[in-house]
Design brief:
Oligomer: single chain
Largest sheet: none
Shape: globular
Strand content: under 5%
Helix content: over 70%
Number of strands: 0
Distance between the termini: 39 Å
Order of helices and strands: HHHHHHHH
């Protein structure tokens, strides 16, 4: 199964994935955001697992397994386009702000905004067709939730 997901994520033009593959792509993108600043810590890992659990009603161990698979896939992928292309194929435009919120959840998990993480989110938002204004609104919603 991991091999099939890797093949689709790394293919030049991936097919439209089913829900689990979409969530693997989202998880891999969240891992990429978390790793962007060179400090991938436990707070970010826990946040990724929480976001995945909330989005899909996963149990704690399922979310952890999904995050761990995503870490492997992210390490193999040459660029962010693979993940965003898959998400763009499966997530309607009106729901993509939710993807950006998930990315901000991870980026802000450690309590500060990293320029590298922010740049990755800007890139992902652009590739997903989410404008800067909607990305900023997503960031504000996350900051408000996090307090």
């Amino acid at each position: 199964m991991l091999k099939a997901i890797l093949k689709r994520l790394l293919a030049p033009a991936p097919e439209a994935p089913n829900l689990p593959e979409r969530e693997v792509a989202l998880a891999a993108l969240m891992v990429r955001i978390a790793r962007a600043d060179g400090a991938y810590d436990d707070a970010e890992k826990v946040r990724i697992e929480r976001v995945l659990a909330l989005r899909d009603g996963l149990a704690e161990d399922e979310a952890k397994t999904l995050r761990e698979r995503a870490e492997e896939i992210e390490a193999e992928a040459a660029d962010t386009v693979r993940f965003t292309r898959m998400l763009k194929a499966m997530v309607p435009l009106e729901d993509r702000s939710g993807v950006i919120e998930a990315l901000w959840e991870v980026a802000l998990a450690d309590g500060h905004r990293s320029a590298d993480e922010e740049a990755q989110i800007r890139l992902a938002a652009n590739l997903l067709g989410v404008n800067d204004r909607d990305s900023a609104l997503a960031r504000r919603r996350v900051r408000k939730r996090l307090g």
